[in-house]
Write a structure and sequence with these properties.
445 residues, mainly alpha, 2 domains, 66% helix
Length: 445
């Protein structure tokens, strides 16, 4: 079977090329939060402060033997989606250019690191891409492929609660854009179906929790996380200063310690949140305060202002490596024979130079932009490339708004989607670079 005509071989080869960081790091990358997914997931228990689905993904797809299986699956699924986008939508029917692009994405963008990290970040991007494909291009592939994309969308969407919010915002932006274009009525059935699918996926998180814990819920800690964000922005401190005299409550005892960073507020052992019941026991008090704050025009205005400022910051946080590094001996890895020694021998424990890595990725981006401008490719963009560019911009904005407004801005949240910019530039440059990947060369750069 030749690689040129075999889709499975192409996808397998592409997934290996995308995982370049694994080959010189030596092991899957353990972001600190991923320890919770591994620990709780391997015991088949609910994760106290997150959706349980990614933990169950770790448990079942690892087969109890190796975390590498989870990483390979993430890469395979990504290569599959990229190939559909490449061949069916952008009509780049050149397998060698497809593999070259996957190599560039793995080596020169954040994609390889996002795939190699044991966190549900990649599923946020894949869920959004599936949404895009189902909204605008569902007529281009068979019914079976369409249903397979729906299944992938649901699987990806139930991995984290924030994916629901990002997809809802994405659909809202697209609804406005279609209305401005005068195409809303022709797309209304498709939009309604996708809104329903997004809601269904969110309910799926609750059903997973029902299976694991016996109770249906979407998030046990949403109030705690939002209180942490309000504490970080100073809004909670203002609210308590103005209300505790007339309405003393459990939260008032923490007002002298505010403001403080959300990470410290939520996780540090000495945080004042511990004195009010921690993440879960006082969640009712947190939600009551949140409702009071967000229904007050004054505090709501403060929250919107702080959210927009954070979203602007989040939008430009594009460095790889935030949180990736050596740590304490990882006892959770006892579930996986050989993975602990794998981790201890990896370059991650020896501190990867992420400054140089990011410099290299920015040079790759600069090179692609230079070729794009020099070749004047912007004047030859197909309608599908134009709408894909609009989708990527809307996704970058939606991702920044959700993560910037509702949590502490963090590099990892934005780089998980920014690799699509590299992908788009590679697609736009195909007419220019195609002669280098053809047996019938034409004029070159």
């Amino acid at each position: 079977m030749k690689i040129k005509n075999n889709a499975i071989i192409q996808i397998l080869a592409a997934s290996i090329l995308m995982l370049i960081p694994l080959w010189y790091n030596g092991s899957p990358l353990y972001y600190p939060d991923s320890m919770g997914y591994i620990f709780w997931g391997m015991q088949g228990m609910e994760i106290p402060e997150r959706a349980a689905t990614y933990g169950l993904f770790v448990r079942y797809f690892s087969l109890g033997q190796s975390l590498w299986l989870n990483i390979y699956f993430q890469a395979f699924l990504t290569a599959f989606i990229v190939r559909i986008l490449w061949f069916k939508i952008l009509e780049i029917n050149n397998p060698f250019y497809f593999l070259f692009s996957c190599l560039v994405l793995g080596l020169g963008s954040s994609l390889g690191w996002t795939l190699a990290t044991l966190m549900p970040d990649i599923f946020c991007t894949l869920s959004a891409v599936c949404l895009f494909l189902l909204l605008f291009f569902r007529s281009r592939y068979s019914v079976s492929t369409r249903w397979f994309l729906i299944l992938i969308f649901v699987f990806c969407s139930i991995q984290h609660v924030s994916i629901f919010l990002i997809n809802m915002l994405l659909l809202a932006f697209f609804s406005v854009w279609l209305w401005v274009k005068g195409q809303f009525k022709t797309q209304i059935i498709g939009l309604a179906g996708l809104f329903f699918l997004v809601f269904l996926s969110n309910i799926g998180i609750g059903l997973v929790h029902k299976m694991v814990s016996g109770s249906f819920y979407i998030s046990k800690s949403s109030g705690s996380f939002l209180i942490g964000r309000l504490a970080e922005t100073g809004i909670l401190g203002r609210y308590l200063d103005e209300n505790c005299a007339s309405n003393p409550g459990p939260l008032c005892q923490m007002r002298t310690a505010l403001p403080m960073g959300a990470e410290y507020f939520l996780w540090n052992e000495n945080s004042p949140i511990k004195t009010t019941g921690g993440l879960h026991d006082a969640n009712g008090y947190y939600k009551e305060a949140i409702a009071d704050i967000l229904t007050s025009p004054k505090y709501l205005a403060y929250f919107v202002e702080a959210g927009l400022r954070s979203a602007m910051k989040q939008f430009f946080l594009l460095d790889i490596g935030d949180g990736l590094g050596g740590g304490e001996k990882l006892k959770q890895l006892r579930f996986f024979p050989g993975n602990e020694s794998d981790y201890n021998m990896s370059k991650q424990i020896g501190q990867i130079n992420f400054f140089r890595l990011n410099d290299f990725c920015y040079l790759v981006l600069a090179g692609l932009v230079f070729l794009f401008v020099r070749s004047r490719a912007i004047f030859d963009l197909s309608p599908d490339l134009k709408i894909t560019a609009i989708f990527i911009v809307i996704l970058l904005i939606s991702n920044a708004l959700v993560n910037g407004a509702l949590s502490t801005p963090l590099n990892r949240y934005q780089v998980r989607v920014f690799w699509l910019v590299y992908l788009w530039l590679l697609a736009a440059l195909y007419p220019v670079l195609q002669p280098y990947f053809s047996s019938d060369p034409k004029s070159k750069l």
